[in-house]
């Protein structure tokens, strides 16, 4: 196993996420907590994932589902897209990220905008919302000189394409 932290920081995991996961020290920022939660999925440190949930996030937590996802996924990487606040001394923060993984050989990406709060110096995960791009339209483009699809018999440019 590589010593590089799975969170993508480029650091050795013992100098990056492992001290947070082991409880040696708290994550200093919302982004550090996000990275350590990703690493916890990779290392299957499920107790850490639960321990870093805000009380209001506990209602939706399902130990079995978390275990199954952590164990069945081949974790491929984490990309942090943006952060808002979430620094030392802040009360709250948001981190937008993509977690890449494969299940049964099929690569997938989970993109989320996560909310965090600082509870007496300890960052906690509050909630997350899936982020997706604009819908992809795969309609055939009608050429200007093609017959109009309305059935008028005219060229598209002389009919509905005006």
TrEMBL record:
Superkingdom field: Bacteria
InterPro entries: NTF2-like_dom_sf, SEC_C_motif, YchJ-like_M
Domain YchJ-like middle NTF2-like: 29-128
Regions that span the bilayer: none
Name of the featured protein: YchJ-like middle NTF2-like domain-containing protein
């Amino acid at each position: 196993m590589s010593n590089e932290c799975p969170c993508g920081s480029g650091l050795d995991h013992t100098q990056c996420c492992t001290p947070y996961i082991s409880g040696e020290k708290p994550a200093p920022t919302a982004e550090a907590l996000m990275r350590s939660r990703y690493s916890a999925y990779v290392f299957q440190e499920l107790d850490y994932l639960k321990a870093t949930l805000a009380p209001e996030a506990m209602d939706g937590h399902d130990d079995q589902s978390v275990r199954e996802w952590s164990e069945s996924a081949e974790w491929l990487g984490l990309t942090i897209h943006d952060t808002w606040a979430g620094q030392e001394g802040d009360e709250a923060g948001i981190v937008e990220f993509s977690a890449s993984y494969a299940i049964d050989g099929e690569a997938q990406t989970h993109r989320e905008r996560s909310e965090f709060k600082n509870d007496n110096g300890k960052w906690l995960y509050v909630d997350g919302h899936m982020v997706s791009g604009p819908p992809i339209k795969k309609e055939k483009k009608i050429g200007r000189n093609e017959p109009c699809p309305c059935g008028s018999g005219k060229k598209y440019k002389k009919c509905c394409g005006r």
